[in-house]
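This part of the workshop introduces the protein records we will be handling. A record pairs a protein's sequence with a compact description of its fold. Comparing a sequence with its tokens is the quickest way to learn the format. The record below serves as our worked example for the rest of this section:
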Amino acid sequence: MASKIWGVLVGVVIFAAAYTCQAQEVLNSRNDAAQLGFSTGIFNIGEDKDATELRLDYRDNYALFDFLRPIGGVMVTSDKAVHGYGGLMTDILWGDHFVTSLYTSVGAYHDGDGEDLGHWIEFRSGVELSYRFDNQSRVGLGFAHISNADLGDRNPGAQILSLTYTVPVGSILN
């Protein structure tokens, strides 16, 4: 099951990378706002011990090298697992409203009553396909993988399927 999910993820990433040159623009600090993302989904999908995921993240509008934006957040599950993370993401705008977001991050993980992922350091990587409204808020479907990259004796990893809504920080503060 995990190899099929990874195959789909790799396919989406290859598709996104292959057609980046046809994208209208890469979103960066000149043309997008800092955002807060609110997500819910299924943590450890396809496994016996899945859980509900809730996530809050901050997506900065500063762009390193004009395309890599900082991201940081926290995930909690219904099994009391917690993952705080920070990393980099890139957003590719397709036409006026569709966005592909690719990100990778690293952070501290505590399993609570949930899945033991083999180490307290875990890496989260994912892809999100979103619709971007005229006010720059978004709604999207994402797929992510958490893994310790073989830092521990075991590395079971977990897959996450989530629904995310992001809002520009400026619209919250005004």
